[in-house]
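Human:
Class, as today's exercise, you are to examine the entry below, and be ready to discuss the fold:
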Amino acid sequence: MNFATLIEVDELVSLLNSENLIIVDCRFKAEEPAVGERSYAAEHIPGAVYAHLERDLSGPPFTDKGRHPMLSPDTMNALFSRLGIGSDSQVVIYDDMRGAIASRLWWMLQYMGHHKTAVLNGGWSAWEASNGPTASGAETNPSTRYEGTPDQAKLIQIDAVLDQPLLIDSRTAPRYRGEVEPLDPIAGCVPGAINHHFGLNFGEDGRFLSPSALKDNFSTLLGQTPAAEATFYCGSGVTACTNLLALAHAGLGHAKLYGGSWSEWCRVYPPTS
């Protein structure tokens, strides 16, 4: 088995008893940070372990000072080891936000060189709709010694942002235009950025669009810029990863992430009127 972008519910069902399968539940709600873990304890995909966005997938400032700072490579390796991920593991990640949180862990694993990593298409909602089996309580995996190496070119830091050939803001259009800002102290966008809200990657059923539809959308967005030269950001380096996943699923390759995103940029370089 080798799923590197998305996996469907029926595909995951067929793999549930596989020896090298690691499933991670990343359900999370910013307005109530504990609700995702409570939901996991009540009911989750059998065998899944839990990873919390703020406690596990973010950490003390290392490369950035955004709302959800990216972990250091050593801390990522420690996290992956605790989750039970080995070099041959097929990792499957899901949430209940169309992959918006799961994609963060997907990107972290890709960044550290673990490419057998996929997000469940449709997430928990699709699993429930299919009447997939469930379990309750907290589960753990035997710990491993994961030793990944970061691809430094994939993670952009603030001093290099304006040097990027193409910068893409993944937030909603009103936030990008600076009309509203519900989370950060200042509204606006990074100078020169264009906009592609991560929600444009989904159909009405909450599942990702087909690879061909995604390819058409991103080809128009990128123009003559190769995907590897494009840099995506959002509010705090989380939902931008959904665009990065969709781009890879479209077969266009892997772009870059500005991890600090607007939450860091607006504090360091506040817009002037």
The first strand starts at residue 6 and ends at 7. The chain has a mean pLDDT of 96. The chain has two domains: 6-129, 152-268. The first helix runs from residue 9 to 15.
